[in-house]
Amino acid sequence: MQFTAPQFKDNAARALADGQLQKALTNVEKGFIAKRAAAVAALPEFDALRDKGREIKNHTLAHLDLYLEAYEHKVTESGGHVHWAESAEDARQLVLDICRRVGAKTVTKGKSMITEEINLNDFLSEHAIEPVETDLGEYIIQLRGEHPSHIIAPAVHLNKEQVEEDFRRVHTHLDPKRDLTAPETLLSEARQVLRKRYFQADVGITGANFLIAETGTSVIVTNEGNGDLTQSLPKVHIVVASIEKLVPTLEDCSQILRLLARSATGQDISVYTTFSTGPRRAEDPDGPEEYHVILLDNGRTAMLGSEFQDMLRCIRCGACMNHCPVYHAVGGHAYGSVYPGPMGAVLTPSLFGVDISGHLPNASTFCGRCESVCPMHIPLPKMMRHWREREFEKHLNPATARYGLGVWAFFAKRPKLYRMATSIGARMLSLIGGSRGRIASLPFASGWTDIRDLPAPEGQTFAQQWAARQKQGA
Amino acid sequence: MSQAQIRPKVGLFATCLVDLFRPSVGFSAAKLIEDAGCDVHVPIAQTCCGQPAYNSGDTKDTRDLAKQVIEQFEGFDYVVLPSGSCGAMLKMHYPELFKGDPLWEERCRRFSDKVFELVSFLTDVRGMTEVKVQLGKSVTYHDSCSGLRELGIAKQPRALLSSVEGLELKEMTGSDVCCGFGGTFCVKYPDISGKIVSKKTAMIGETGADLLLAGDMGCLMNMAGKLKREGSTIEVRHVAEVLAGMTDSRPIAGSGK
Ligand code: SF4
Predict the structure, then answer these.
(1) Interface of A with B in 340-379 (CB under 8 A)
(2) Alpha carbon separation from B102 to A177, B49, B59, B71 (Å, rounded)
């Protein structure tokens, strides 16, 4: 997708003015939050599970090299192939090489954020291979030439009417008078259209929610079953996954699975959870002849051992964005990168550089709701603050903000001067406020007064008044 | 606590916003702390807890300010602030700043242990269960983010408010949703902040309450400023003013009585 994080402010302004989008975003704000809350309330040990999840991932990350080796060994043992990709480019090329070798014209795809991260669809299309998204949300945005605006609900920025319009525009072979008002009819129409494509596909590409070192297994969860068809019907299955998806054992995987769906959609567990270990064996009724795993680094090893290591615990449940007031206000596209919301505000600078992603960790109120719902206990605000520190060290933040902060700090560190300045300031602002006690416009604080009035001070600072009273009392 | 016992010495950190914009909150806090059987001291050299620098990534200035605060306040039995976010700054974030510092780590930890947000101090530390004041108004309460999520303040203010004679609490939906203040966020991203606060004022309006309360001046000024701009007449005050029975001053917003 086109990287527009540097234009975050413009993106946000456009999103705020988009009435349709604003309406669609209320679904995130209302639906997801209530569903998660109910699911969590129904599971008394949820918090204990979160601690466990954090422990499992911390342990894995501390020994990631060992687990990756063990995983590769197991995959190879079961007849699969592991390919290592340091960069997005490497990963794309690896996919293309496999597709070319088997003469693929069409690939079906399960929903995968990693293939978005490496911009795989555009790349394959440029090389005359047609990618077909099979997840309903992904399918819709592919029809529209868009990108996901949410990591688990890619088309959450759209409403039903828009989807209906798109289906009528593209599915011209179907009866124009058909009734498409119910959401289920949209799903079944997409299913019907996609059925043919599953059989045409030479290669199926999925992501992985987990990779299990103990068994060499990749795991995907879906609610539509499209992932299963994507990976079992074509003769080649390619899994594209980033290195931090690893967990040591099956048992670890099942523990974290209990957190995933509850945090994401409020389900106890997703409708389909599929474990794939190697290609089809002689006695298997179905499955691919070749099984490949492309393991992507793309900046992740640089996060290991840094103040951003905790971010690698993320299981991409989307709870942080579902609860984020900034996400609710501007939606996922405004972030201008594959990963939106609080997790994106931390991850995007790690993957693409803070020099061009600086807005994302800054555009947060630090309300902390993301951290409070994150099933993996990721301290998201703290890590956004770490990005701000790096920005500050590198002088990347705007000169005016730096200057303002510098002046403020100068006074705050000199209490006597500070007392003088605040006494004068309080007096002045109170005069401007007049008898109504409000300031409707203040040139040097236009960011404040464009939106709201500034309540005027009472006249004297607390320190002045307190000192005066102490004197009287004495 | 028996009369014979010595009254603990409390250092009141009024916070920069209270100092500049709302001295009555400082006096309300002082009264409440005294009512809770403590002596109040206000070190005159206090300025700001350092949040603007901290949240802008300026760790050096933050550390300088933190040391200044610690030096001024470490001599007291308790340090109390009428603000959840400044309270969390001193209690939770200062120790982070001095991790591994041989001179300051332990000193800061001892200091931070004594720090409390005002309402939590009154109830959790001093065991206050009621206030003897009255106010014939309906009230809605906004949970400021830092106080709620970093310090666990939610039940305490509601418990004390329920003891105010004549006061009716009308909860808003989403009382725990951010008001969009976020320190420098509100001036760096004014239109996003504006959108968030307008959702908040809508929720406040739906309650039909006479008075909006919260425990943090940042959030209060943000919501009050927006309510005024929208022409709302709902009164806005810091929760300490109501608990202390000091509601004669002009409210932060709204017509008042
Ligand atoms: S950061 Fe936490 S809440 Fe957000 S997607 Fe990752 S695991 Fe889920």
Answers:
(1) 362-369, 371-372
(2) 77, 22, 17, 16
What spacing in Å lies between the alpha carbon of A310 and ligand 1's midpoint? 11
Averaged pLDDT, A201-206:
96
Residue stretches of chain B with pLDDT short of 50: 1, 257
> How far, in Å, CA of B181 to CA of B214, rounded?
13
CB atoms within 10 A of CB A136: 21
Candidates A16, A392, A458; nearest CB to B57: A392
User: pLDDT tens digit string along B137-176?
Assistant: 999 999 999 999 999 999 999 999 999 999 999 999 999 9
- The C-alpha of B180 sits at a distance from chain A's nearest C-alpha, in angstroms, of 6
Give the chain A residue nearest B222 (alpha carbons).
Answer: A452
Please report residues of A whose CB lies closer than 8 A to that of B228. Answer: 438, 452-453, 455
Q: Identity (one letter) of the amino acid at B62?
A: T
pLDDT in tens, A384-414: 999 999 999 988 888 888 888 888 888 999 9
- E strand segments, chain B: 9-12, 39-41, 78-81, 115-117, 138-141, 168-169, 211-214, 235-238
The amino acid at A420: M
Is residue A422 less than 8 Å (CB to CB) from chain B?
yes
Q: In this predicted structure, what is the pLDDT of residue B256?
A: 53
State the nearest Cα–Cα gap between A12 and chain B, in angstroms: 7
Does the beta carbon of A317 sit less than 6 angstroms from any atom of ligand 1?
A: yes
User: SS3 helix, strand, coil % of chain A, rounded to 5?
Assistant: 55, 10, 30
- The predicted pLDDT at position A395 comes to 85
CA distance A115 to A129: 15
CA atoms of A68 and A244, how far apart (whole Å): 9
> In Å, how far is A143's CA from the nearest CA of chain B?
30
Q: What is the pLDDT of residues A425-442, one digit of tens each?
A: 888 888 888 888 888 887
Contacts of B11 (CB under 8 A, 6+ apart): B41, B42, B43, B72, B73, B75, B76, B78, B79, B80
Gap between the Cα atoms of A208 and A72, Å rounded: 15
Q: Does B152 touch chain A (CB under 8 A)?
A: no
Angle, vertex CA B81, rays to CA B80 and CA B86, nearest 5:
130
Edge-to-edge strands of the sheet including A210-212?
Answer: A246-247, A210-212, A217-222, A272-276
C-alpha torsion angle, residues A31, A32, A38, A42 (rounded to 10): 150
Sheet containing strand B9-12, edge to edge, reads B39-41, B9-12, B78-81, B115-117
pTM, 2 dp: 0.95
The single-letter code of the amino acid at A135 is: D
B141-169 as b/e: b if 16+ CB within 10 A: bbbbbbbbbbbebeebbbebbeebeebeb
Chain B residues with CB-CB distance to A391 below 8 A = 57
Q: pLDDT digit string (tens) for A279-333?
A: 999 999 889 999 999 999 999 999 999 999 999 999 999 999 999 999 999 999 9
CB of B196 within 8 Å of a chain A CB? The answer is yes
Q: What is the pLDDT of residue A445?
A: 80
